[in-house]
Every structure is written in C-alpha cells, then in structure tokens.
Amino acid sequence: MKTTSIKVANPTISEGVKKRIVIISDTHITQSESDFNLNAYKKGIEQINKLKNVDYIIHLGDLTQNGTLLEFEYAKTLMSGIKQKVPTYYVIGNHDALNVGYLLFEEMIGERHFEIEDESFFLLALDSTIPDLATGKINYRTMMRVKNLLLDQPNKMKVVCFHHQLIPIPHTGKERSAILDSGDMLQVLKECGVHLVLNGHRHISNLYTINFGKQDLLAFNSGTFSSNKTRYRENFTYNIIEINNDIFRFNIIPILQQEKFKKEIFRKVSTYSFRKKKKNEKPFCKIIHFFDSSFSPDDKKTEQTFDKLIQKINNQNDISIVLHSGNLTKNSHKEEYEFARERLKEIAYPYIVVPGINDVKPNGYQLWL
Ligand SMILES: [Fe+2]
Ligand SMILES: [Fe+2]
Fold this sequence. Notes:
Layout: E1 18-24, H1 38-49, E2 56-59, H2 69-79, E3 88-90, H3 101-108, E4 114-117, E5 121-125, H4 140-151, E6 157-161, H5 182-191, E7 196-199, E8 206-211, E9 216-221, E10 237-244, E11 247-254, E12 263-268, E13 287-290, H6 300-315, E14 321-325, H7 334-344, E15 351-354, H8 364-368
Parallel strand pairs: 1-2, 2-3, 5-6, 6-7, 7-9, 13-14, 14-15
Antiparallel strand pairs: 1-10, 4-5, 8-9, 10-11, 11-12
Helix pairs in contact: 2-3, 4-5
C-alpha cells in the first residue's frame, strides 16, 4: 500500500447526486433505564419507519452503553425494529469499544471501516475509537489509506463518517474528545475535496461550513437518539440529510415533541477560484503580524533580532497596521513591560498588541492594563 500521493482532487461533483440519508447516533442501548431512554427509542424508530424514499440509514456510533455481549444482543433485537427496506450501516463509537466491545462489534454488527459507493456517491466510514478512552484518533496510516481511497473517486460526492467530532462543538462544556489528530485529518479532507463529514459523540446537533479556499466542507454533528445523557436543552433527535448535487438539506428532528428544536438548514457546497491580481494593483490592506518577542532588558540576542525586524517593518510601504499577537514579555515583569513599551514606539506604523500566556503571569494582567 502506498502511503503518499501527489494526486490533486477535482472539486466538481458529477450531475445527478440525489440521496436521502437517515442519521441515528448515540442510542446507548442498555438494560439500565438510567442511561437509555426506551420510550424515546421506540418513538424514534416508529417515526423512521414512516419515512419515504430513504436511501440509507447510518448509525454514527455508541450503539450500546458499555459494549458488553448482553447489550449488543439487546441492541440487535431493538434495531430489528427498523422496518425500512434499505440497509442500516453502523459506525463504531467509543462506548461500543469499551470492554473489548470492538471485537463483539465486528462479530455481531459489522466492519469497523466500510464504504458505500455508486457511480456518483462515495461514503467512507472510519473507526476513530481508542480502546477504553473517551477521546478518539484516526491514526496516520489510516489517514494515508483514506487519502488514496478518496482521491481515487474524482467527481463524486464524498462523505466521511467517524464517531468523534472533527473539531470542537458548541454547548458541550470542556473540550476533551475531538479526534487527537484533527489538524492532520482536516488537511486530508481538504486535499481530497470531501464535501461532508458526519460525526456523533457529543449528544448535540451542530453544523459547520468550513471554507477551505477551493471548496467548502460541511461538518455535521448529530445529537443523541436515546441516551439520557442529553446536552443543554436539546433532547432526543434523529436527522434526515437530503443531498441534491451540491445542495444539502439537514433536517434535525426532535423525537419527543420539542418542536422549537426542529431545524431545517440548507447549505451549498461552494467551490472557489482565485481572482488574478491586476497589474500595479495595490492591496486594500497590508498587515504585518508577529508575536513572541519575549522582551527582557537583559536579553541582548532578542534585542538584536528586534533591531533587524524594526528595520524591515519601517522599510515597508503602505502598511495599514502592525499586530503583535502575544508574549510581548518573558515573565510579565514591570521592567520588561517598560522596556517593551519603549521598543514598540520605534514602529513607524499604527500597531496593536494582544497579551499571550507569558504576559499574564502573576501581576502581569495589572501591568498590561
Ligand atoms: Fe455517546
Ligand atoms: Fe461517544
């Protein structure tokens, strides 16, 4: 298997992509009534069974609460209540992987990595779990394999699913469980021209549109279907995603009559081309940005570096503003602030300075003000 690629994604989508996908996530099925809401589960399945023209049903992980044999057996019984005539696909979640549940998942539910594909559509599902940890990771080798798979699908609608969130989600408290290698994964998704990412795990709905400069990426996070661990005011939901070429409609549907949380969001995956610069065209705004000067009156090396920088900045033309974004001082000492203030006055253009971690050590904040 090759681990590098020099292919470049084509940002266009072939005509005629029409899909209606039902998304379920974080059911957390267990015999314990404190964790799992059987009433919400049954009502949700009843509603899903009435839907028309569904192409796929995808469960985004945490099918079970603890990944135990009894729970997987119970989950299989309950999930057989889905009467739609289309397949249901399952992404593994961190709760499914608990207690070596990842082996049971493979034996009883399905592959931990899978693909759904036709002539205009390519969906790739990945295992983002780390055994017995709440956080997730894709891993470098998986990413490289994914990259090659996705780049081999030019002109198709590309969707990638994994359980953990790609980037932090609002209204979820302390961030601790986005995939650990999210920066690298974002880069892969960008390079491969992926249109949509589907995640669960945070038990609250969210949609981001990420502008990568060449093409948008939509990142949709599903809420929980039936876990009693709901977040903020959103209770139990499922989703219908309708794709019509580059137009997406996300329906977030509350199961238990929470009408005000019913949402219908339209998004277009836009592609962009850069305008060529005209001859002699002047920029609208020119900004110089630097940080980490770490001024200290005793540090001669830093001072020499700053001498050179000041010279370079002041030799530039038409600078609108100079920005220093943090760590102006080394240790927030008074004499460092006084020294830094004098040196900043040498900048021949307007400047703004914002504090960094080194500038707010004890008493630093008062000195800053
Ligand atoms: Fe969950
Ligand atoms: Fe989870």
